[in-house]
Amino acid sequence: MASETGVRVAAAALVLLFALIPALGLQEYWIYILTIGFFYAALASSWSLLVGYVGRISFAHAAMAGLGAYTSAIASTRLGLPLYASIPLAALVVGCVGLFLGRICLKLHGAYLGLTTIAFSEIFRITVTAEHDFTRGSLGLQTPGFFATNDRAQYYYLFFIFLLCVLGAMWLLLRSRIGLYFAAIREDEDAAASLGVHVVRWKVAAFAVSSMIAGLAGAFYAHFVQLVAPSMMSLQEMGLILSMAVIGGFQNIFFAAIGGVFLEVLLELMREIGGWRMTIFALAVIMVLRYAPNGLVGELIRLGYRRARGRVT
Amino acid sequence: MSRIAVAGVEKRFGGLVALKDVSFTVQAGEMVGLIGPNGSGKTTLLNVMSGFYRPELGEVHYDGRIVNDLEPHQLALAGLTRTFQVTKIFRRLSVLDNLLVPGLTKWATSRVTAVAEANRILKALGLDHLAGEMASTLSGGQSKLLEFGRVMMLSPKVILLDEPFGGVHPTLKTLMHEVVRGWNGQGITIVLISHDMSSIFDLCKRVLVLHNGALIADGPAQEVRQRPRVIEAYLGTDSARTGG
Amino acid sequence: MRRARAPAAVSRGKGDELGLLAFTEQLINGLVIGSFYALTALGLAIIFGVLRIVNFAHGELYMLGAFSYYVLTSVLGIPPLLGVPLAALLLFITGMAIEASIIRPIYQGKIERVDEYAIMITFALSIFLQNAALAIFGPWTLRVDAVFAGWVTIGQLIISGNRLTAAGIGVVLIVGVLYVLHRTWVGKAVRAVSQDRATAAVVGVDVARAGMIAFGIGAALAGAAGALMGPVFLVYPTMGLIPAIKAYVVIVLGGLGSLWGAILGALILGVVENLATVLIPDTTRALAYKDAYGLGLLILILLIRPQGMFGERTRRS
Questions:
Q1: Out of A187, A193, A195, whose CB is closest to B92?
Q2: What per-residue confidence (pLDDT) applies to C9?
Q3: Which domains does chain A have, with CATH numbers?
Q4: How many domains does chain B have?
């Protein structure tokens, strides 16, 4: 179908563009910003997996990223583990936390789930702040970097490849029958169960996978910016992730990822207006939810289709 | 060995007793009607039989095993399936995907096989031209047919139907009767809950009657409908005395 | 490594008398704080009862109330006693505006995915209001005039007069709202909608307006709580987060939809929190985790008995 090839071409072009950016002579600073954008893209897309595909809204996502960051940070500094061990450890730990959270939140949905995840998020943040023997509390914990030098381009490609891997893995999952189970659970749990879908197992799995990706992203982030602070786990951060996913389009992991990069870039471009940035983003989220619930990327594609169809006929 | 046996089932919700000492067996290949006035506990009984509720007392047997503690999806995979009174189709999935969900719950089934089977069933139900459409665009009657299609994908041994003919126009009802008869013809055991008496007596040789959570009649359809107690349950004591 | 014991906030072991005094002091403190929680929680409960949504922006409405009070009293020089009702009034109007613009579409069939929409839009609203306040007023904490300065002595107890007055006003407001809900026609209409929206509409209640008023009342209560608490705990843009979480704990504890449950739950939480700080030996840790108790309680209730003490249980399938 014409539209499918069109999407594939556009996606390939986008990937190519991002792959070539460092070579195009972009300022070091912007390469740094895009790298952070990839980090947020991973968070936004893994959040949209839970929200858009399984239909569960968790507000603990930022906390999961933070947990991953802190786990790897502590493992590498206090336990002296090398990064190729501490990062997978972080992913494992956060995956287990996600499993646990998913298990105990099974009977909860909607606002109840939202409240519980907010509570967990804050408890994690408070604990991390309070246990400053371990974590240096609000002062933040310094972490070793990935590479010996602070070559921005290296980190850029690291995160870019990480993001592609994460998106690829999620896409494969969603294309498989498991993706169908997720959607069935989102649409109607009881009907899904009556048709043979193991609702408990797949809901918990979704939580675990989504959290694990966030934790992994957080771990990578820790060794990129080389300083982790509890603010990473705040509800403000959660609000940013939500904004990215909603504005990009939370029904689609790729749209959400684009939202992540886009908003991070915007955040930097709007640096001058400081505190007003999040205010504007939040307002944009409200507008998008109300008038363009498929997200801006989704709307743009829809408009693109309409124009194209109009021209053909 | 019976296909399904319900023995001494009691179901309570707080202080309310929804089912009291309900016992009956259904043989493999039977088509049994389950009737009773509103609030008599028919759907509750169905929910107990399909694993959605756990009974406080009593057991549900399926193929000789006690299945009280099984989850709905386990029963479905074992061939005990059901539909819902208010249709629960997957609205934001396509019609085909609605069928693929049950089609792919057994890991052994490949996607190719499931798609072929789904298309075959859609054709048999006259829905194949809607395969790619979003399920939310279906009419009420088409949604009911879609639910039929979904349970068919599970190669069921038992189908529990909860008010499938509610609000369905006559032509579609005739088609649905044919489908149900076709199922029974293949040896599938059917329990049919319906308020539609013509459908019940058309399809079922045997009828169970529930009233206030208790089974007050279990016998041949034509005979049961004459019993005073049954008439009383539906129409009140006066009607029973005056003979309906 | 043994950590040195931090000096206890309250001396213990110096005779039961002192211990009892401290206990009573914290108990009364707890009840006072509890009445503030009740004020906020009641607003949340009303909004949930009528509109069936959990208002994730409730903490920010509380914060707006505090900031309104600040602007009214410290900037415009209005006397504090007038500042509180005025702030509440401002929030009442704001609440109605919010309902009319972003909540009402839910009931007008304009929203596709209702559940997700309700949660996300109020969460987004909370981020919006927080950051707007940050942008306008800056991150600094502000001091505001108390309604009643000074201390009140009851026997051996010394309690902040400010807190007592604030609690007193809070109680008056709670009683007032309950009166309106149970004795006036408007209140009954609102309650009717909370019980059965469709039927209320059939008997002639303007359900849209009832919803708007309910949100307005909820916002006004939160705003009043913020205005009253401002002098006690200082005013700053993120001040709403913790009271909001407390409010959630309270209404889940008391049972979503139950007003008396909310009030009772609020008092219990206030008391538990304050007593916990006295009873736990390591005070610095205890204080650091103070806000976590409510959170832990919230999780516990949601998992064990989600309908709370008085709420109704929703049936499955």
A1: A187
A2: 45
A3: 2-312 (1.10.3470)
A4: 1
